[in-house]
Amino acid sequence: xxxxxxxxxxxxxxxxxxxLKNINLSVGEGEKIVICGPxxxxxxxxxxxxxxxxxxQNGKIEINGIPLNDNLKxxxxxxxxxxxxxxxxxxxxxxxxxxxxxxxxxxxHKIPKEEAEEYAMDLLRRVAISDQxxxxxxxxxGGQQQRVAIARSLCMKPKIMLFDEPTSALxxxxxxxxxxxxVDLAKEGMTMLxxxxxxxxxxxxxxxxxxxxxxxxxEEADPETFFSNPTHPRSIEFLAQILH
Amino acid sequence: xSLKYTKNPEKRSLPMMQGFxxxxxxxxxxxxxxxxxxxxxxxLLVKLLGPFLNWLVFNATxxxxxxxxxxxxxxxxxxxxxxxxxxxYGFYPRELLWxxxxxxxxxxxxCFYSREISRWNKRLLSYWLILxxxxxxxxxxxxxxxxxxxxxxxxxxxxxxxxxxxxxxxxYPLGILLALGRTGYLPLVRSFCLGYIELIRGVxxxxxxxMASVMFPLFLPDGLVLPKLMRAQIAIIMFMSAxxxxxxxxxxxxxxxxxxxxxxxxxxxxxxxxxxxxxxQALKIVIPPTVNTAxxxxxxxxxxxxxxxxxxxxxxxxxxxxxxxLGFSVEAYVFVALIYFIFCFSMSRYSKRLEKxxxxxxxx
Lengths: 244, 364
Ligand SMILES: Nc1ncnc2c1ncn2[C@@H]1O[C@H](COP(=O)(O)OP(=O)(O)OP(=O)(O)O)[C@@H](O)[C@H]1O
Ligand SMILES: [Mg+2]
Fold this sequence. Notes:
Chain A has helices at residues 43-49, 72-81, 97-108, 113-126, 142-154, 172-187, 199-205, 223-228, 233-242; strands at 5-14, 17-27, 32-36, 58-63, 66-67, 82-85, 160-164, 191-195, 208-213, 216-221. Chain A is of the alpha/beta class.
């Protein structure tokens, strides 16, 4: 079976700063990957390369068999299949919640408005905020906004979902409502890459944990092994820190 | 019964007076320094406003001739009465004045209609384009039995409004395109837009107007003659769009980077991203500087007098040359300043209102 995501010897520089070094990674369909590592290790940059919010410089990235390069058509195809959830939600503040969800389906997939709205309402029910459909993002709590952001991505019916620290901008009491949505999504078989330090979530859903440091993948293991028996000295040090 | 009625106003006015006193205390006399500043400013106001009102109203000459005016100290309002038609309409044929008047009425009507942002759609835009056609039809005539009036007879307020309104209607979208080009992906387009903006901003509007009146004809194919009014209009649009572009660029830069990324990640194309996500936010952010630019441009249209177009300021100056009415320039300029003020102040108030209406309720 072809992998959904395949990175071969991928490198990226910011000017002469080598952020990502020889990344090799293969993610199968339905696989859940949690990426962790110290601040500045390149986690965000890695997943932002997967839908070309950042361009990589050499090596290969293939998403669902489509090579990611300067070809705009490929990029367009890939972005239709890859959803992304940001740390700061990035909802469109001038649009209502419902409009946030229907914008891309209407314009990118050319789906008629009524149909797009119907599907959007389904998704809003799934993340349990259908009663807020006609409000604006500024009127919602952080947790609600992040659930809307997840629903907005799902509206495009992506095959892969990328999450960049989706809960780290939230007040503690709102973390669970967002993680619950993500766990549900995982159960439905979505291919997921998630940058997070939520160990409970990692243990519950991840097939693999990837530990990054200074632009390299240092260790790769199933969550059980990684959290109880890390092998690399840098992972040991990192885990000691986040466990206090 | 009567008791009830006499009681009521007292009851109401007492708290109102107290409210006013409270307001004064809070806003004008909260600290010794504030009190001092307030008193000085109030004193200045009385000192300046008093003589001005005396001149403009109480000592003014309302009836009579130039001779009566010269005997009195106050403003010569007779002069304004005598000349305001000329100042407002220039050399437009006297018997056809209903046409420019109707044109202005249509304009003001459409302004009022456009106030509600719920009415902002493609149809409204087409109304404004139709307004331009109506203006052309009413002022120029020559169709449906309307007597034709040549362009060099146009003048005064209609001319100023034409230059300003058409200038704004066309330079706003052009400015947006220039700003997008300047910040976009295409290197050639980018350098063209940058070059254009810097070139235009680097020369004064007066020189652009001169060039428009002298040089445009050289570039045009033989036989095609653009009237001076149109050449000035093109120069004004070119000038305004460069400034609008810089204002819009500020807005594009002020939209959060996450908005661009979210739109990209959803797979929106460049134009979808800009039209649906970025521009609505960017243009809202820059409402105050946009209106500021528009106000500046409204006043700058008066520079066309340099190439002898009779706009509002030019007709004012011309009215002063009447040998029977020499020496009333202060009256004339106060009058024309008042007209400019009415338009510019309305724009400024409206901008305040827009800012309020465009804030998407609650936190953002
Ligand atoms: N646009 C950029 N230009 C230059 N350097 C950048 C840019 N974006 C990120 N970097 C640098 O690249 C490195 C990796 O950044 P990245 O955001 O991927 O780290 P991270 O692992 O996500 O960290 P955090 O946990 O703090 O989010 C950091 O040193 C950062 O300063
Ligand atoms: Mg990060």
